[in-house]
Amino acid sequence: MTVTDRPAIEVSGLTKSFGDHQVLRGIDLNVPAGTVFSLLGPNGAGKTTVVRLLVTLGRPDAGRMLVGGHDPVREADAVRGIIGVTGQNSAVDPLLTGEENLRLVGKLLHLGAAETARRTTRLLKQFDLVEAARKRTGSYSGGMVRRLDLAMSLMGDPRIVFLDEPTTGLDPRSRRELWSVIRGLVNDGVTIFLTTQYLEEADQLADRIAVLDDGRIVAEGTSGELKKLAPGGHVRLTFADAHGLAAAARAVGSAEADMEQLVLSVPSDGSVGDIRRLLEHFDDHDLSIGQLSIHTPDLDDVFFALTGNTSKGVRS
């Protein structure tokens, strides 16, 4: 992974209102070059507004933005020259072939015939679309269309790519194929700014994640760091009989016993030290454990804890 000293994206004090509704309330973001940064948040949190401002499609009310060292307001052309954007709605023309879609983008970028041909060949191979290159894209699967859409956004060799929910509607296999493509881009030094409705996607891809709620960043960090912010981590212990379970529950104190399943849930952060102390405690009380499993909070738990969102529906 190639990471430069200067951040790919810098945002400080960003605010934006639409009429009386304040959408962004002072956003600060710092995205290192050559990494994947994911912005999560419930509907209406302001994610799309952040992206639109960064890709030169709007003006903030206040604050500072730099994309690749350029101001998206005062240097819009310079920013557009170094970014690629793939939105929720595909830019692929279903009446054209995959090759024709790529060549059309090359013409719009004024790359010239030779360079357009070279990049088209490279991208078709990179995105595993060579065999389908001369087929109309209306016959493509959802995964193929999304791969082509992303390939089209890369015709200008952007250093920074904005992906707005790139795998929405894809089946699990196609989603994982696109994840592999995204990881490859990052390995080549491309910076990815990702918004997604799939928390697993951010968990799998992002080097850092920011949670946006009601126009504010409520938490930021690695996936592991964010998971420590949510309650619910525990060790699940099973016992051979109710007598052993009851004795273990008395020994621990702060645990939840399920007498029907013969399971004891003990609050824990899942660390090696915490597990060792728990097992030593049971040894001191001469208690025999059947099975042990560790359950740590996932990004769903983090999301609900930080945003107060109680629905497991789509978060876009």
Order of helices and strands: EEEHEHEHHHEHEHEEHEHEEHEH
Tell me the total number of β-strands. 13
Coarse shape: elongated
According to CATH, the homologous superfamily of the largest domain is P-loop containing nucleotide triphosphate hydrolases
CATH topology of the largest domain: Rossmann fold
Helix percentage? 25-40%
Q: What is the level 1 CATH name of the largest domain? A: Alpha Beta
Structural class by sheet pairing and helices: alpha/beta
List low-confidence stretches. Answer: 310-316
Strand order of the largest sheet: 5-6-7-3-8-9
Q: What is the C-alpha radius of gyration, as a whole number of Å?
A: 24 Å
CATH architecture descriptor of the largest domain:
3-Layer(aba) Sandwich
3D structure, described in words:
By secondary structure, the protein is an alpha/beta fold. It folds into two domains: about 10-225, Rossmann fold (3-Layer(aba) Sandwich), CATH 3.40.50.300; about 235-295, Alpha-Beta Plaits. About 35% of the residues lie in helices and about 25% in strands. The chain contains eleven helices and 13 strands. The chain has helices at about 45-55, 75-80, 100-110, 115-125, 140-155, 170-185, 200-205, 225, 240-250, 270-285, 300-305; strands spanning about 10-20, 20-30, 35-40, 60-65, 85, 160-165, 190-195, 210-215, 215-220, 235-240, 255-260, 265, 290-295. The strands form three sheets. A six-stranded mixed beta sheet has the order 5-6-7-3-8-9, sandwiched between helices. The chain has a four-stranded antiparallel beta sheet with strand order 11-12-10-13, covered by helices on one side. Strands 2-1-4 form a three-stranded antiparallel beta sheet, with helices on one face. α3 (about 100-110) crosses α4 (about 115-125) and α3 runs parallel beside α5 (about 140-155). The radius of gyration is 24 Å and the shape is elongated. Mean pLDDT is about 90; it is low at about 310-315.
